[in-house]
Amino acid sequence: MPLPSPSPTAHETASNEENCDVLVIGGGPAGSTIAALLAQQGRDVVLLEKEHHPRFHIGESLLPANVALFERLGVREQVDRIGMTKWGIEFVSPEHDHCSYVEFAEAWDKTMPSAWQVRRSELDELLFRNAAARGARTLEGCKVRDVRFDNAGATAQAQLEDGSQRSWRARFVVDATGRDTLLANKFRSKEKNPAHNSTALFGHFRNVRRLEGKREGNISICWFPHGWFWFIPLADGTTSVGAVCWPYYLKSRDKPLAEFFRDTIALCPELADRLKEAMLVDGAVHATGNFSYSSTHATGERYLMLGDAFTFIDPMFSSGVYLAMHSAFDGAELVSTALDRPDALAAERKAFEAMMRKGPREYSWFIYRVTNPTIRDMFMHPANPLRIKEALMSLLAGDIYGSTPMWGALRMFKFVYYLVSLRYLRRTWRGWRRHRYNIRDMGQLKGETILKPE
């Protein structure tokens, strides 16, 4: 049920413009997290969400590094109740006659052995309600249309579902609008990533054959000729399956989307076998456009952008929710500095900008190369000379902002990659040429849609 609109209080002015310390736009993991943290500090925080929870969202696989953040928010037990334990990753390649299995317990830091698979509708609602419980004023069904800044703060204009208008006057604004990228669009600072151009088809299935025992909750990453699949088991018995594919492949569709999706699954024999008795939930197939973009900057004197509102990368390594929530924790400190110690804001903004780029940069190196046969071989035959496997698993666990001394070993992993690539130069050249061909721009889907079989 939607939360009731806040009643007129002393927060409102005579012009029906409400005042607050911080206006957070977007009630996903980033927005709900920073709203909860700032409200706990005693700030007057307003959190706006354009839809009503629970609402569908992609991105159901979490990282072990998320666990500590849930603990700090006081919601770990709640997440555990809705999630399915994820101990590791399975890699499936059409060029190999075996499947590769790795566990997060093999990482450098052994204290983060697991994460969860979750329905994002449940997780996002849990975090949104937690922000309200911590003191944030929350409102659903409220879409912000514009934000205007001045030296003292910002004014946001919004529209409710009944067509009525609302406005807020805030000392600071947080953009957590995800792929709507409200402020990046306003400032025209959003840039498409030319190194990666992909689309995705996905749906939820029942009666799927899963891995057995401890591995049942693992995410499976399955390569196929036109991209890769995710296979994410959920606690309610459904399984999320999606194909991240190159735009030229989606452009070739000449049949209803559900049929095209089934034909795409058939291109990965191992996946097709697991889904041979499966049924598509509600007959719904989802499609979303180009994944990768970034804004030229993440902060201003009176605003910051969190998570996908700043940048979005291919979801192969399930980093989205973690990067969003981590940026919210650091973002809360930046907001506090802006409101309480503005003389120190410049230095904090510089550090925050660097942090926002670090995670996407570290994951993107692998994402850009993951369809290359050399990287595929290394994932399918993981070895640990000089602790390179432990370093890789630390990265995949999300252990990228702490003090784990894994970076030397990770550089060695990259050195081995380049060495093997040089040894098999012809294969490497073919892989590079194929990647350049695959990412050519053929137009893209706009936004996220839900399509049903025609």
Describe this structure in words.
It is a single chain. With 454 residues, the protein is an alpha+beta fold. The strands form four sheets. Strands 4, 5, 12, 13, 14, 15, 16, 17 and 21 form a nine-stranded mixed beta sheet that branches. Strands 1, 2, 7, 8, 9, 10 and 19 form a seven-stranded mixed beta sheet that branches. Strands 11-18-20 form a three-stranded antiparallel beta sheet. Mean pLDDT is 91; it is low at 1-14 and 443-454. Helices cover 36% and strands 24% of the residues. The relative contact order is 0.16. The chain has helices at 29-40, 65-73, 76-82, 120-133, 182-187, 247-251, 257-266, 269-274, 320-340, 345-369, 373-380, 388-397, 407-423, 425-438, and strands at 17-25, 45-49, 84-86, 88-92, 99-103, 115-117, 137-140, 142-150, 153-160, 165-175, 190-192, 199-206, 219-224, 227-233, 239-245, 279-280, 285-288, 293-295, 303-305, 311-312, 448-451. The protein is globular and about 65 Å long. It has 14 helices and 21 strands. α1 (29-40) links the parallel β1 (17-25) and β2 (45-49). The two termini are 31 Å apart. The longest helix has 25 residues, at 345-369.
Keywords:
single chain; 21 strands; nine-stranded mixed β-sheet; 454 residues; seven-stranded mixed β-sheet; alpha+beta; disordered C terminus; 14 helices; 36% helix
Short description:
This protein is of the alpha+beta class.
